[in-house]
Amino acid sequence: MKRICIDMDEVMADAVAEHLLRYNRDYQEQITRSDLHGKQIWDVVPTDRHSILEGYLLSEDFFGVLKVMPHAQRVIERLQQRYEVFIATAAMEVPTSFQAKYLWLGRHFPFISPSNIVFCGDKSILHADYLIDDNPRQLRRFQGEGILFSSHHNAGVTGYQRVEDWLDVEKLFLGGASV
Amino acid sequence: MKRICIDMDEVMADAVAEHLLRYNRDYQEQITRSDLHGKQIWDVVPTDRHSILEGYLLSEDFFGVLKVMPHAQRVIERLQQRYEVFIATAAMEVPTSFQAKYLWLGRHFPFISPSNIVFCGDKSILHADYLIDDNPRQLRRFQGEGILFSSHHNAGVTGYQRVEDWLDVEKLFLGGASV
């Protein structure tokens, strides 16, 4: 059975939506996802407010409230019937997120066993056939086949099989939607 | 550069010493490490007290106070000069331990980058040449070469290259002690 690793932020969980929500609320701004095309949120927010952005990530309630990406639950549950599925998130970048990320997975993806969850830093450590990730830096280091999950910031990136959303993942790995 | 993964509990951190300390203190017992030869602590403690043992593991201050295994710091720092070193702990078994384990590593092994720390469940996910672990179940699933780190509970286990302590690890991977 082939093994697929799946990233969390911007792939399973909509972190940028929450980031924009908090920033727009606190600074009465109207930055939208389309303003971030080809960019990170850090590129469109003035440098002297970067510590505010970091503060959102470090706050205990950030990761817990993230919305699930459309169709992620149904498609991952289907993937489990044909593949060994692991969740692999670069949680070491935000150590305060461990507990919130673990609880979020349990709440929204109760069918994923804790033994198949990986909190790591450098994803070259993953022993898997595929990695679905929005971060080209992680895909470059991964030893298997990288699948680039489309996100505002990776708009211009080439060199990987790209999926636009979870329906695209379903098509790629399962040949289409279930009836 | 070859890659070595290193387990935490009973390899880098002396968890069983703290487990015995708390149990002996709370029940006025004198169980020693040698009483655990070939056994887990669960095998020598009456079943109706197993929830007490679990409670120790779940308490927030358990993993933070663990003693470092003799020579682990010096040998791991030396290993880093010749190998890529990752720390891989089955933290998903005790999700309350994430933060304490992370802080413990930072305090006692500040020379290990957070990007080289992995909290996982099933260690078959690790992409590495070697795994140094006291748990034969994890070594069986690991795809590289498993090195069994001697511990009271694995006394009778065969089928793996065995190291008795960190001096043994140093000899195996570096050919002996540094001058």
Automatic annotation (TrEMBL), chains A, B:
GO MF annotations in UniProt: 5'-nucleotidase activity
The protein's superkingdom reads Bacteria
| Active site (catalytic residues) | 7, 9
| GO biological process, any | pyrimidine deoxyribonucleotide catabolic process
> Which SUPFAM superfamilies does the record match to this protein?
HAD-like
Give the protein family: Belongs to the 5'(3')-deoxyribonucleotidase family.
Report the protein name in the record: 5'(3')-deoxyribonucleotidase
